[in-house]
Amino acid sequence: MFLGVPQGSILGPLLYTIYTADIPQSNTKILTTFADDTAIFTTHPDPTLASANLEDHLHSLENWTRKWRLKINETKSTHITFTLRRGKCPPLYINQTVVPQAETVKYLGLHFDKRLTWKNHVATKRKQLDLKTHEIHWLIGKHSPLSLENKLLIYKTVL
User: Please, which residues have CB within 8 angstroms of residue 3's CB and are 6 or more apart in sequence?
Assistant: First the structure.
């Protein structure tokens, strides 16, 4: 017996929203979900207490996933601490598995680094744009018979 909905199905997002409507929430933590991506944010001047608050919420999520027979993919989970301070926060655990702490994380197409400088995001997007520009160069390059107006239209549409 299979559980779930085929990926890309029309009813998938609606069924997922209904199924996860009672996901544990908290007044001191922010939980955001988009499709099957979830992020939990917590703030505190002391990174150790921020990690403890996050760990507390992770335990309630573990209980919730056990109740509804959902599986958290620990290998895709990442812990990042946004701070200007040196040092690391205490480790976090999901189902007795350490959540790896990262210097950068990608969430919903945005690349965040621990200092929130956007440097990594801009570099990544710049690389993607350069690749796309290279792919369409034959169409918009100086030897193309298209008018400048059409080249600009293609450029804006693709990028």
Answer: 69
Could you give the CA distance from residue 94 to residue 102 in angstroms, rounded to a whole number? 16
The answer to whether residues 150 and 140 touch, using CB atoms and an 8 Å cutoff, is no
What do you get for the CA distance between the two ends of the chain, in Å? 43
Contacts of residue 5, Cβ cutoff 8 Å, sequence gap at least 6: 11, 12, 15, 16
Under 8 Å between Cβ of 53 and 42:
yes
Evaluated on CA atoms 25, 27, 28, 34, the torsion sign reads positive
What is the rounded CA–CA span in Å between residue 104 and residue 114?
A: 6
**What is the Cα–Cα distance from 86 to 158, expressed in whole angstroms?**
41
How many CB atoms are closer than 10 A to CB 21?
A: 7
Residues of the chain with pLDDT under 50: 1-2
Q: Structure pTM?
A: 0.70
3-state secondary structure 92-126: EEECCEEECECCEEEECCEEEECCCCCHHHHHHHH
Q: What are the tens digits of pLDDT across the range 87-117?
A: 778 888 888 888 888 889 998 889 999 888 9
